[in-house]
Amino acid sequence: MENAGRAPQVLTAHAAGLVGCVQCGRVHRPDVMYCDRCGAVVTPPDPSSLQRVWAWLLAGLIVYIPANVFPMLRTSILGQTTDSTIYGGVVDLVHHGSYGIAAIVFVASIIIPCAKFVAIIFLALTVQRRVRISTHARHKLYEVVEFIGRWSMIDVFVVAILSSLVQLDFAASINPGIAAVSFALSVAFTMISAESFDSRLIWNADGEDYNNG
Amino acid sequence: MNVDSAAQLPDLDALIACPSCDALYLERDIAPGETATCARCHATLEAPRNTAMTRIIMLALAAIILMGAAIFFPFLELEVAGRFHRASLLDTVRAFSSGLTAPLTIAMAALVVILPLTRFGAIIYTLAPMAFGHHPWPHADSAFRMAEALRSWAMAEVFIVGVAVALVKVAGLAHLGIGPAFWAFVGLVIVTVLKDNFMSRLTIWKTLDARRKS
């Protein structure tokens, strides 16, 4: 136990000259294309796959801008129509005193998307530059990003439910705004970005690959 | 059991690589009830459970029935000054169908209804023949691969939290009625979470592979 307090040294399939299937765990010789257990495409951990992560992330960032600029909800009460953006909706909720809901919406549609962008950029950069920081922390961060991504869709669902429910003709009606589309796209793109990130690279980046470390 | 050096590599069939960090292990039989986790990244490798397959199939069937109930029963109802408005689950899916937001309708239908149903169907297709002691059906591996790929895109649980937020938002302004479809959907979410907890991906792949060859 000379390495107490550090991750145990582990031989990876890659370091042993083999390839592991990320779907079912089966180990193959490096020249195999498809896994013979589950049929998935077998690829070694490849740093150039980060390009896909960057591309989807950039797409997600770009569509996140109109999602914040254009109205998410269009509320008409007695003939008066008001448009509200994501941020505007949170401010309205605070003015009405619904702090709890304001907090949920604020976290789900502003904090989580921004934190996710930052987290993916951080992971991709540190893996690309082979920065040596705690792999365990980065692995945890990756798991959180992967888990939390879909929950940003809450806001789109809230808009859908409100606009199908509050349809009382002249008295009060709520309709969705165009920002809902770009927000949904942004969530989907960042989800794909996180899914294209190969978590095996986090461990390779730290040089924990058998011969050094 | 860890593999220590490249020199003593055994036959490939006796090895397993952690899907999330690529660490190599010697495959050994894991008794039902035990859980094998990766020593490095703590991901669950294998977790065989007694009668897990039957339980997963039953839960997936229950989820399909609950989805049917959620679609056909009344979902939510709003009352302001004697005026009623009812919305079914399909109405909320169709909420975006007018104007420029129309493409979102397809996304909504997929995320809330179609993808969860596809997943349950694919899981039943993969496991049902095996639970009753036979060989898997053809293309069971494609079906299960699809079920796993759709895992994060079937957003029933996210939807139900969205409903909760929306309800609290309008609760102060109007009188709200919650229909049986709402509770059916809540049940669906609970059943889905239970089912996903029972499922161990590597165990299912191993069983599928073994049964196909036998």
Describe this structure in words.
The complex is a heterodimer of chains A (213) and B (214). Chain A contains seven helices and six strands, in the order E-E-H-E-E-H-H-H-H-E-E-H-H. In chain A, a hairpin with a 6-residue loop joins strand 1 and strand 2. By secondary structure, chain A is α+β, with helices and mostly antiparallel strands. A three-stranded antiparallel beta sheet of chain B has the order 6-5-7. A two-stranded antiparallel ribbon of chain B has the order 1-2. Chain B has 214 residues and is mainly α. In chain B, 53% of the residues lie in helices and 12% in strands. Classes of the chains: A alpha+beta (213), B mainly alpha (214). The interface between A and B is large, with 74 and 71 residues.
Query: Could you give a short account of the major beta sheet of chain B?
Result: 3 strands, antiparallel
**What would the CATH topology of the largest domain in chain A be?**
Butyryl-CoA Dehydrogenase, subunit A, domain 3
**What is the string of SSEs of chain B from the N terminus onward?**
EEEEHEEHHHHEHH
Rg from Cα of chain A: 22 Å
- Residues in β-strands, percent of chain B: 5-15%
Quick recap:
The complex is a heterodimer of chains A (213) and B (214). Chain A is α+β, with helices and mostly antiparallel strands.
What attributes characterize this protein structure?
heterodimer; A: 213 residues; alpha+beta; Butyryl-CoA Dehydrogenase, subunit A, domain 3; four-stranded antiparallel beta sheet; two-stranded antiparallel ribbon; 7 helices; disordered N terminus; B: 214 residues; mainly alpha; three-stranded antiparallel beta sheet; elongated; Paraquat-inducible protein A (chain A)
